[in-house]
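Helix-turn-helix protein
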Amino acid sequence: MSADRSPTCEPPAPPRAVADWFGAEVRHWRRHRALTVKALARRVNAAPALVGQVEAGACPCPAPLALALDEVLGTGGVLFRAWPLLHAGTAAPGPAPYAPAPRPAPPGPDAVLPDHVLARSDVREALAAHDFGTVFRLARKWGGISYSRIAIACDMNPARVGHLAKGNGRVTTHDKITEIADALRVPGRLVGLQPRPWEAAG
């Protein structure tokens, strides 16, 4: 489902307390699903700046974006049901179907590294060096995790995963390193990051 790609916030702004609460809900669910702002924005077809503004309570969330966030984050419809609070006096485009909105722990990713793979010295050396091509290759060799599964979990082009595994290119951006670590369930300390939100739940 497409959402408004506009990176700007149009007036009128919602009451600050309501906007802050709504933004906190979006941030909670995003972190629960181990997604960066950039990764979430890509999945809901929105500008990262817009998602960031919504989380910060600086911008009223457009209805199409609320629906897309519910779908991608698996909230059970809580964000769209709260949408009218952001737009007092504005009719919502239609009621969201009722569904309970529990806060479960995020499901394990498809490419989670087994403990015996994560414990290997060559895997840990590759992680410390951010040599994810070697990590992908060893994950397939010792964990039976296909490159296609890695690509889906890490939101990457399968060809890109294959090229990295052959030693062609590197992953250098902080956001992508974080996204890969979360997708493979690599503890933050092994890649030079702070402990990840899902580590506390585990």
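thats it. The chain has two domains: 16-86, 115-197. The CA atoms of residues 38 and 163 lie 23 Å apart. bye
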